Amino acid sequence: MMKAAAEEFDRHGYDATSLSRISAVAGVSIGAVTFHFSSKADLADAVQQEGRAVTLGGLERLTAGPLSPLRLVIDLTLELARLMEQESSVRAAIRLARERPDTDAWSDAWLPMVRALLDQAYERGQLRTDALPADVTLLVEHLTNGAEAYLRGRMGSGPAFESTVAQLRRIWHLALVGVSSDDGVILPQPRTRAPSQAGAAD
Amino acid sequence: MMKAAAEEFDRHGYDATSLSRISAVAGVSIGAVTFHFSSKADLADAVQQEGRAVTLGGLERLTAGPLSPLRLVIDLTLELARLMEQESSVRAAIRLARERPDTDAWSDAWLPMVRALLDQAYERGQLRTDALPADVTLLVEHLTNGAEAYLRGRMGSGPAFESTVAQLRRIWHLALVGVSSDDGVILPQPRTRAPSQAGAAD
């Protein structure tokens, strides 16, 4: 029943999912569902908890290894993408947390770990001196959210899409060594207001 | 009425929005709504079209300027983030396209432009020789999706959140020059299966 609930919440979201639909998909009586979960919110809480537990289980296997902090952050990101691809409870936990703003965000379960590892990486000199741990953490958060959006956009469109794990590996390669051939002044300066004229700030 | 429709679709999504609710929020009769739009799908189509038009309008102001291709890609990304922050039609277009898989994705409106600019940047030597345009395009797609997810997670939580434009500027700084202090062999090799044991592949 938890698996059916995760799949329904993942596919249709919180609002469009009902306990009676989950009971039908799971092939159990509505009484059996409500015996365990008195409300849809209760069941969603349980699915979110399971998704976080599955996520932390995946990450703990990695952190038990002998990897350097930066390498570990990369492997954690790839493992998060793998979990998103393969575990409906993880996808449901991500979606439910977004749709139920009063509950903990899925990333709250692992972002502090990523930040702590990046602090270590910085202290050990693995990061460039101007690559601040807070900024790299933000990059990881964006890549993970981007991977989920990609996955959600492609789901149901057949198996002919590229694995998000492979995509993140390509992106990490870029992010580690840099996109630009020139270390110079290409980045635009912060502007205090939106650009109103083409090229005006250049 | 289009503004009310964009705001409702943006906040509540396609399924949870009805023509009668939009008519109530816009303060017009349901007859006035159905006179212009015979169905919710029609109105959603119009909102998505407007969101794409607003997006392309914002980008065209930039491309009229004298910027180099790589710089232009960065500015386009920042402009997309600004549009997401400020334009409900853009946010609605993104959300509706995701929730209505039979319609064009919002990114279809601008990703080809980004790819063409990155091809130019590569030819002009602005990119590292191993920073392939396809991979940088993928990075842009992930950052944009990540910015939208961040924004959606923080909306309604008051003005005390960081601008996504400022965030993307920090991330671009990293991505341009690279995160790692070492150009060496830190990136993990592709694995054909999921890691089953901690550190086994290292």
TrEMBL record, chains A, B:
Location of the HTH tetR-type domain: 1-55
Keywords: DNA-binding, Transcription, Transcription regulation
Keyword Nucleus on entry: no
InterPro entries per UniProt: DNA-bd_HTH_TetR-type_CS, Homeodomain-like_sf, HTH-type_TetR-like_transc_reg, HTH_TetR, Tet_transcr_reg_TetR-rel_C_sf
One GO MF term: transcription cis-regulatory region binding
Signal peptide: none
Protein name in UniProt: Transcriptional regulator
Naturally occurring in which organism (per UniProt): Streptomyces bungoensis
